[in-house]
User: Fold these one by one.
Assistant:
Number 1:
Amino acid sequence: MTALGFTVKSGWARSVLLAGPPNAPRVVDSLRVELSDPSKPESRQPYHDGFGTARAAGDELTQLVDSAVRFGRRSVMNLIEQYKKEGHQVAGIGLVVGSLVDPERLGNSHVRIHALEGQLFRGIVVDGAVQSSLAYTIWRERDLYPDAITRLKRSNTELRRALTQLGLPLAASWRAEHKVAALAAWLVLSG
């Protein structure tokens, strides 16, 4: 059994595929997944129109968002399909995001822009999961460790040590974004 974790960023996500029993998971793969079309660099931050300025509603914004949705959904679905072809039984997906705040409730326009992009790219990964018939769970990053400590019955120190150990086969490329994606996958593996 495997589970796939994603740390969602603006225009991309870090994915980590974990396998094994919940008490001894191991990393199978870790990739950067593009969620925006590289041929349209503005689709990485479609709601931005320059530093701190919101892009006006209209055709350009619609085209950029649509481009990101099409490209990102295909990226996520292709990744899941590839894992299935390799024989991995993916139990589900765990997503880690910075915020779940409704962008319309935010007064600061620059913060609202970031929230809109967070909502967009989170939605792209969710849509890829749904289209691939996989269950998903979303965690805010600040809630992930407290939830994991409770559900995995490990102290904060034990959990952080275990996450560091998980990344040893990947050596220098194991950073915070990898660890939280792995932890989300681990929680999915744990049920």
Number 2:
Amino acid sequence: MRRLVLLALLFGVSVCAYAGPVEFTFVAWNDGQWQNGYPYTIQPVGGPLAAFPVMCDDYYHGGVPGQMWDANISSLGSGNISLTRFNQMIPGPDALAPLRAYDEAGWLLLQTLVEPKNQWQAINYAVWYIFDPIQTPCNGACQMYLAAAQQGIIGLPQSYYDRVYIITPVDRYDPDPNSPQEFLALGSSSGLGFGQSVPEPGTLMLLGGGLAAIAGRKFLS
């Protein structure tokens, strides 16, 4: 059995009193290429936080390093996605209710805590595919993570996603493909920041359960 190495991005400084929009700067893509997927890097403007990693969930829009924008921050654990970009039915052959789509994407983001970095690109493409199945290419690894997410979220309480945040441009329905993207970020139940932590064994079981089921199915087929 493969040993799981955990690199958890929990936050010691918080930006949890989201009374209004927060201004951000887009810092960098992963190794200078947007196609590399997670992690991109953004930074609050004039705030206490350093730059921190985020996952783009928006294949259509394409912000660039140096871009600044105002964003609303939603906690996925709250179940309130009214300020998000994809808060309407996701189109495509397997149309998803919006909250389920975000739950699958949040589950996938949490897998970056237990999956090696060489899998993060496939995980990000799976997230892109959830919200844009028409344009997003999705190979075998991407499809595996999609299937794992569909199984992994079954029966999970919404509070499981307390560490997942959605950072959405204020003009969330802007049709300009060059306008800012929406991002997912890992934090703590109290907000966004940086730090390290090792989750309880039960958390590891929840994170790995869906992937283990998919892997077992592959070996038995």
Number 3:
Amino acid sequence: MKKEIEPKQFEDETSNIITSTLRNLLEGITGILTSERKDYILSVSRIFQRMRGGQFLSIFKEEWDKFKEKGRIKDDYQFTEQHKVCLQELLDFLDNDSPDEMHFSVLKKIFLVAASEKVTDRNSILPQQYMKICRNLSSGEILVLNACYQVTKEDWFKNTKQIDSGAGYWLKKIAEKSNLKYNELVEVHENELIKKKLLTDRQYGDRSGVMPKPYYRITKLGYEICKYIESYEEEK
């Protein structure tokens, strides 16, 4: 007779790791607060970063636990290499970067979509790659990329064969859609997204044109990342 696996073998290690990390964050903050005044003054920004990181980590733990309770994440997923790499990426982001809500939200969504194994399976390397790419985007770049993606879902874009391909029109549209307001500000992030292969380059010798179809300048890679993130809402 096949021996059944005891439930304790599937103890949620991820939740335990997060709890332990939160405890260490708190102890670290307490240690700074009790140090000499000189050290304390130099560590003010670090304290704030740790507090923010702790808040985001608590939010993530709550969502992870809910996904597990609802059966959207298999018990043995936490032992996969994909999960370990993605968890390390998230923890590194919270510990070493200056965490903000926009970046955290994007990384969290990629993580949980991967864990649900509905869009990709546990053997895929795409979630890890998506997290690394998004972690290295600025908040403005995320706004521009998301604005382009939202345009591709609008009826006028889907039903119009010939769309204005002028760079000026595209800049104005994305400035409005992203709430960045200024065309020049969109251009700053546009150039970086082109370098990162998430936006197609401009056309013509004077760079006055863009290629609006099929994804309003988003590359196939950029489009798939946006679609992957969006699937979190369906999973949620």
Number 4:
Amino acid sequence: MPSDIVLPSGNEDALIKMAKYLGYSTLYLLYDKGDIPKLVNHDAGITVHTAMVVPPKDVAQARKRVGLVICHSAEDDRAVVEGAKPDAILGFELRQRKDFLNARNSGLNHVLCNIMRQNNVALALSLKAILHPKIPREELMGRIIQNIVLCRKYGVHVILGSFAQSTCQMRSPHDIIAFCRFIGMDGKEAKLSLDY
């Protein structure tokens, strides 16, 4: 049952139709903190949920309103994972930081991965951030691959969404699975990254 996460801006109907056309069974419409439009019951043959990106202090309140709560990576990710416990954290690999001498400074480590597994917090990856990176692409890809290896080792769920703002930015589940295989996931992990 492949799922995708998109960032609507008044174009919910077009995104839902494109998701059905591409073969998704579930679509999450991701909004920033604020008003979430009431969704009309779509007879599109696709399940539509709302999701929110919120600061850690608003996770409990957002959980009452939406199906998926995501926080951005911050200075103290451990406190977020232990205290707020969002469904996923986005952007570990995107923060500007200097890499170590023998490894990438990818934002994750074994301690954080263990806590994420215990609290059922997933690592979220954005295909949009990978296609249009704000840091050098080779640095970004190295960090993502390192994070996937850590997540596999410590049993942390990885989710990948297109985070598209328009229909032309959306990708099919087959394209995303192929990308997941390219960055080091096996077939089962690649399919599970679209199941959330």
